[in-house]
Fold this protein.
Amino acid sequence: MDLMTLPAFRLGRRGDAEALAELLCSAAGEIGLEEPVCSAQKRDDLLNWIREKCYYSSVWTTDGYEALAILNRCARSKCICGIQHLVVRPECRRRGVGTAMVRHLQELTGVTSLIVEAQNQPAEEMLLRTGFAHDNPTMRGCPIRMTWTRF
């Protein structure tokens, strides 16, 4: 995959839960997931959580599961207000997939701002390239809270 063949993004479906769980857990360390989340004992809970997020149109992915974005929705308005997790399959990293996913989310109807916590330096750099800014520029280390607002 190169920059010219970026995948098309689509809403996740409840039937995608197994593949999406695998992708999410493949990056557990990089995104700061606590160890039990991906354990065999918690597998059903994770699958049910992903299915619920899919039901509420809060998951974006691709047909080949190259990337996954799990969104936060505001409690009262149900609008998208943040990115809870953004994962790119290891072999697809540094090829524009994560950047394209963020830009896709920024263009969704009704999205006027997004909040995210960068869990690692490559994520922070990618978010800066897509217009996110540090909420507290003097803070160092991860996670780093960042915000994007449509002008």
User: Anything to note?
Assistant: Residues 73 and 104 are 17 Å apart (CA to CA).
